[in-house]
Amino acid sequence: MNLLSILLQADATVANGGAAGYSGLIMMLLIFVVFYFFMIRPQTKRQKEIKKQREAMKAGDKVVTAGGIYGKIREVKDNAVIIEVADNVKIKVDKNSVYAAAEDIPAETKQ
Fold first, then answer.
1. DSSP 3-state of 1
2. Looking at residue 3, what is its pLDDT?
3. What is the DSSP-derived secondary structure letter of residue 10?
């Protein structure tokens, strides 16, 4: 079957019954609802949790950066965090790259 015959059959179905046009619309709406509840909503919920966690960071918290560096927060600035990774070794990291508190990381991944 080529594309033209498929389009002609779809047009004939709509012209005869009229209800076939609504079934396609309902199907598209159903697909959108499924995508929303299984993909979009959980992602926005997770982003809100991460944002809340980053806003709650304070000096003394143990964190892991997106690059995998473990450390302890020494100072929190507007858009950056100063993390102590060893004795007298401090690095300045963007707040958005601090992924999670070290307590939230499963024990198997820590060493």
1. coil
2. 66
3. H
